[in-house]
Design a protein that fits this description.
Length: 200
Amino acid sequence: MTFQLPELSYDYDALEPHIDSLTMEIHHSKHHAGYTSKLNAAIKDTEMEGLSIEELLASHSDNQSVRNNGGGFWNHRLFWTIMSPNGGGRPEGDLANAIDEEFGSFEAFQQSFANSAMTRFGSGWAWLCVKDGGKLCICSTPNQDNPLMEGGCDGQPILGLDVWEHAYYKKFGPGRGDYINAWWNVVDWPAVARMYNSAN
Ligand code: MN3
């Protein structure tokens, strides 16, 4: 079994003007495709072949190629599904209640999440995770690490923000904060809420 680059459910230009078309095209067709093919090469003809991506990340992240490319494969697969041309706004229902309970308000959550993304030095990700029966937490990981790995931060990720320069530099240059502000406009809160409810 090999891993396949997932197709996007929207066009490369669908997240304009917040995330530009060329960035989306390169990010998906070059970066994510590269992680996928290198992951397949790393597990080919080894005892890891046939394991799920979650099993690989949980048990084989000491293998540097699995860690980097398996992480890249999983992280981007999540990233595309938590964005939508109809995104933005704020969550509703149980997820909204859990955010209010943990962070005080949606605005306070946004500030804390953006701070986690801003203060990640170099390349990495910011995460919103679920743990302990519905409790939310924010954390950040370097490179393509994620919370599913040994040594990642704890919990099941339901929202992830890619803060590698390849995710924003063409449009925003070094302005990571401007990218984060724009990204809130494409977050697919119903998709995040579905993951919250199933992780819970
Ligand atoms: Mn990326």
